[in-house]
Write a structure and sequence with these properties.
Elements lengths: L1 H26 L1 H10 L5 H21 L14 H24 L7 H11 L2 H13 L7 H27 L3 H46 L1
Helix pairs in contact: 1-2, 1-3, 2-7, 3-4, 3-5, 3-6, 4-5, 4-8, 5-7, 6-7, 7-8
Amino acid sequence: MASKRSIRRKKLTRYKDSLKFGFYCITHPIDGFWDLTHEKRGTMAAANTILFATVFMRIISLKYTSFIFNDINWEEVNILLYVATIIFPLALWVVGNWALTTLSDGKGRLNQVYMATCYGMLPYPIVQLFLMLFSNVVTVDEAGFYTTVGTITLVYCAILIVCAMGQIHEYRAGKNIMFTIFSLFAILVEIFILLLFFSMISQGVAYIVSLVKEMLFRI
């Protein structure tokens, strides 16, 4: 019993340390993202927590951001759609980047690409919380600050993710940027394939339904 409690305590301590390490990654991206995977300073649990915090802040900000900056009708909001705007691009990015880099001596595994990407998104929920609170105490004249900080945050997250990919795949800057661009094109290819797949599925289902109807009609 004591040993189980000790193991549980060690896992919790490692989880807390790996979550705290995310703040080191966003302030020291080169060293941080190298240690994240090569020194095993990161964990999937912490990555999932950051992703959950990102999705959570995305939804909460819709509700509590001032109407000056977020003029939407909460009752008409499709929460699943807003969740998908984060989860779906993330999944396409992770699969696309991993698939391409695997073909070009990339050292990062699929779970490492996912983990590093999630760690790179850490500034978003932090800043979004600040902006949500800030939006309720400012006027329209100060909207420029809100928009600027939000844009800078997204750009910084993108830079962190690019740095993360370079470190886990052990690519030089030029090669890393090239494969980042290729990964974005890979996302477009993935979307095209998915659309084609679902189109074929829908046509197949429609054909089967029409065939069954024809058979029932003849019977």
